[in-house]
Amino acid sequence: MHSDRAFGKTLAWVGICWSVVCALSGCDRNHAETEHWPNKPGPKVVVSFAPLYCFAVNVAGDDAHVKNVMTTTGPHDFNPTEQDARLLSQADIMFVIGLGLDEHIAQKMKDGSGNTRLRIVELAARIPSHKLCEGVCTHAHHKDDPDHKHDLDPHVWLSPEHAIYLVQAIRDELKSADPDRAANYDRRAAEYIAKLEKLKADGLALLAGKTNNRLVSFHDSLTYFANCFQLEIRGVLTQNPVKNPMNGK
Per-residue pLDDT tens for 201-245? Predict the structure, then answer.
């Protein structure tokens, strides 16, 4: 019992550290609560949801402008509004995960915005295929298609190791869009990647020697996290993150 409590505390600490890397590294900065953009030079970047905002804003610094579309919900049940489309009408780049998670919504938003020059960048395409896991889909926008499945698990941002690939992809896209400030994007990306590498190393050190490394997750989203920290997922409470596991509603 004591070892179980110790493992639980250690795992919670790893999770807290992962959250801190996001929350204290620029993610409290201006979210996209309006479609207005500052009248300043630099790429105008939109991201689909909060974790990508954290990655993008840390690479962008003051050289690019980053706004987050999904400020009150996640990609599992997001329904874009007219204001979201207006936000995209002036943007240069939109970063999404891809892998069936958010790229279809992004394309619909782009079509509604009328911004034909907007580049939708699927960041997970930069992750080597052998590092991707199989997955399933229960998103609201596929609710009428119960047989729809993700060929690959899109929850890649939950592993520091995979997050590094996403940060590198963001860096490269910003450098391509804004080559005059390429050195700044390189520097900030390197600094943030160092934090992610340290997080992984610290987590593995904290969990080293723990014989009870099993966990149960609420939603089937922690495969990459578990693989990164050498944990074993023994069960999932619900395949659908918007349903109550006690009654299925």
Answer: 998 898 887 777 777 666 667 889 888 888 887 666 555 554 554
Q: Is 112 exposed, middle or buried (0-12, 13-18, 19+ CB in 10 A)?
A: middle
| More confident: 27 or 40 | 40
Within a domain: 26: yes
Distance, CA of 169 to CA of 34 (rounded, Å): 26
> Rounded CA gap, 235 and 216, in Å?
5
Distance CA 216, CA 224 (A): 14
DSSP class of residue 226 equals H
pTM of the model: 0.79
pLDDT tens-digit map of 54-99 = 999 999 999 999 999 987 776 767 777 788 888 899 999 999 999 9
159 in any annotated domain = yes
Q: What residues contact residue 202 under an 8 Å CB cut-off, 6+ apart?
A: 14, 17
* pLDDT tens digits for range 144-173: 555 445 589 999 999 999 999 999 999 999
Based on the number of CB atoms within 10 Å of its own CB, is 100 exposed (0-12), middle (13-18) or buried (19 or more)?
buried
Degrees to nearest 5, angle at CA 177 with 175 and 181: 45
Domain-embedded: residue 27: yes
Instruction: Tell me how many domains the chain contains.
Output: 1
Which residue matches tokens 């992610």? 196
CA angle 7, 8, 14 (to 5 degrees): 90
Q: Which domain holds residue 205?
A: 2-130+153-210
